[in-house]
What we know:
Helix content is about 35%, strand content about 15%. It is α/β, with parallel strands linked by helices. The two termini are about 40 Å apart.
Amino acid sequence: DRTYTFFSHTIKAQPHNMPLLDTMLQKNIRLLDYERIVNREGRMVKFGPYAGFGGMIDTLHSLGLALLTRGYATPFLHLSLSKEYSSLEVARADMREVGEQIRKRGLPKEVCPLTIAVTGSGSVSNAAQQILHHLPCKYVEAADLPKIWNAENKDTHSIYVVVVRARDMVVHKDPTKHFDKNDYYKNPENYLPVFHETIAPYTRVLINGMYWEPRFPRLLTTSQAKDLHSQGRLPLVCMGDITCDIGGSVEFFVKATTIQNPLYAYNLDTDTTTEMHEYNGDGILIFGVDHIPAEFPKDASTDFGRGLLPLVERLALSDGTAPLEEQKKGMGPELFGAMVTNQGHLTPHFEYIATERAKNEAAESES
C-alpha cells in the first residue's frame, strides 16, 4: 500500500522485469514511472541528456581501446570514461583536445572513413550529438554513405555522422507507397527493415539512442549482422547502446553492464560474449551501462531534481487508496499519466502491458 516512483523498465513489458511488476501488483504498490511523467513539451523528469553525454564519451573511449587492440593508435585513447571526470565540462575539454588532434594529425587510413551512426531524435540522441560537435564531424545522409565508403581518397581528418531516423530504418512493404511517419507508428507491421542494407555495411560506430517497442522492426537483428559479417560487410567496431534494451532494437545486445565493468565484446561467429579483460580484438565491443547518468552524479542530479521538485508536494498529498478519478484531480494529469499500478491492478493507461507480455511469453514458448 505504498507509493514508489522510479524508472521501472516495465512499460514496454520487458520480460526481465515482469517479476518486479508482479511484486508491485501483489503488494498493492502504487507505481509511477519517471519516464511517463510528461507534459505538452515532453518528459518533465529525465536523465536523458546525461545518458547521451556519458554514452557518447564512453563509446568513443571504447573505440580507442578497440582500435588499439587491432593495432591502431588514435587520439581517442586520450579520453577517459565519464566516471573518471569531475564534471561534464572537464570531459568536454578532453573531447575538444581529441578533436584538435584529429584535425592536425588525422586518423589511420585503415580505419577511415570513420563513420558514426546515431539513432533517435530525443534528448539522448541530441546530447550524444552535442559531444560529437567537439570533433571535426561532417553530417551526411544515409544515401551518401556508399559514395563516402568507396571513395578512392579517404578523408582521414574528418568523422562522418549519420543521424538515423525512422525513414532510414524501414520501407513500406508496398513498393508503390512511400514512408509515412504517422502510418509507420500506427501500422509498423506494414514496413520492412532496411538498416542492415543501407547503413550497417558502412558503419564503424553505432550509438543507439532511440525508443523502441517489440511491435516495430528491429534496427539490427543477430541474423542480419551474421549475414553481413560472413560477407565481410560489417565494419562495426563498437556500439554504445544507450537505450539498454536487452534483446531489443539491436538483438545482439544481450546484457547490461555496470559502471565498474562497462564493456564486453559480442562474437557473431560463436554467439558468445567476452569480458573486457579477455578482449583480443575479436567481436563487436559493446558499451551498455543501464544507469549512465550516475557517471555525472552532481550535474545529472541537479537537472533531475529541477524537474522533479515541483511535483513532489502533489504526489506526497495524494491518496493512493482513493478512486482513480479523485487521484487524478489531486495529483494532476502529468503524475496521473505516469501511474502504472494502483490497488493491485494495472491502470487503464498501462493495461496494454498485459497484452504485450502475453505476446512475449507466447513467442518465447514457441522458440
